[in-house]
Description:
Blueprint: E1 2-17, E2 20-34, E3 37-43, H1 53-62, H2 69-75, H3 80-97, H4 101-104, E4 117-119, H5 124-133, E5 139-143, H6 150-159, E6 164-168, H7 175-187, E7 190-194, E8 214-216, E9 235-238, H8 240-243, H9 246-258, E10 262-265, H10 272-281, E11 287-288, E12 306-307, E13 310-311
Helix pairs in contact: 1-3, 5-6
Amino acid sequence: MITATADSFPLARIFTISRGSKTAAQVVTATIARDGYSGRGECVPYARYGETVEAVLAQISAAAPSATRESIARDMPPGAARNALDCALWDLEAKREGRRVWDLLGLPVPRPVRTAFTLSLDTPEAMRAQAAAHAHRPILKIKLGTPDDMPRLEAVRQGAPRAILIVDANEGWTPEIYADLAPRLVALGVALVEQPLPAGADDSLAEMARPLPVCADESCHDRQSLAALRGKYDVVNIKLDKTGGLTEALALKAEAQAMGFGIMVGCMVGTSLAMAPATILAQGAAFTDLDGPLLLAQDRDDPLLFDEHGIHPPLPALWG
């Protein structure tokens, strides 16, 4: 039996990017019950990709009760609904076999991974205060993508002078804005810039100097995305909600590495259940951004552990 529920988890504070703000993580939880065992997976429907909670619930409910990872990869498009089912099927198999998912995959036990912490888009003064409050974290990710971003970035650097900085423009810049900003990003010690130009309008990146690594986020979904990214991007941001689950995400990671791309593992704003499979994917990644649970006021039971070593793999009671 396959069931799906819409769940809401309040955020610790309003979270803003260039597209808008949210006060809660709106997620969908898929549960697959068979032979006395049940597995769970979580996804975050994302309006940028034409997804709604209602549509994702309908997609999951329409899946055959006997669905397998192979059948959903064949019958469903990449995206949130397939992600929830794929991860639930991995969890179900782990529960039935009495083994961890990484053992099923023939992979080493995951180690804690250092993750970025995301600062919400705000005024320079507010972002400086956010940065100062989280200056102890090794990596800060800054949401930008407006016509007046440099004061914000400078304020964050003042608030956290020693942190590694990642900038996420969320498709918010033009080629002219990015060409002007790139050298200044380097001067402020930014290690990576995500999706500076809109997906589908990023060909000019192939003709521009890239003084710092450029990461494809909205431009990269699954393995079929990779060919179009050559010469434009240095890194790809792999998110389970884009790939349609852990199965495709691992395949995408392997193919991207073979093509010479660096790997970033990211997330939507979700709970520990959504991040749990990604802790496997994040092993060996150049950049990890799995801070969704850190943004919540309330998380799942048996949540992931975050400490000075980073994000730890999940307990069996949570997933996998």
